[in-house]
Amino acid sequence: MRHLLSTGDLTRDEAVLILDTAKELAQVGERSVKKLPTLRGRTVVNLFYEDSTRTRISFEAAAKRMSADVINFSARGSSVAKGESLKDTALTLQAMGADGVVIRHSASGAARRLADWVDGAVVNAGDGTHEHPTQALLDAFTMRERMGRLEDLRVAVVGDIRHSRVARSNVLLLNTLGAEVTLVAPPTLLPVSVGTWPCSVSYDLDEVLPKSDVVMMLRVQAERMNASFFPSAREYSRRYGLDADRFARMAEHAIVMHPGPMIRGMEISAEVADSPRSTVVEQVTNGVSVRMAVLYLLLGGAMQTTGNQGETR
Amino acid sequence: MHARKHADGERPDQTRAVLEGPEIGRALTRIAHEILERTKGGDDLTLLGIRTGGVPLARRLAERIERVENRSVPWGALDITMYRDDLRMAPARALGRTEIPAEGVDGRVVVLVDDVLFSGRTVRAALDALNDLGRPRAVQLAVLVDRGHRELPIRADYVGKNLPTSLRESVTVLQEEPHGRDAVLIGPAKPRPGAEPAATGPTASEVDR
Question: Is it the case that residue A255 has pLDDT exceeding 60?
Answer without folding.
Answer: yes
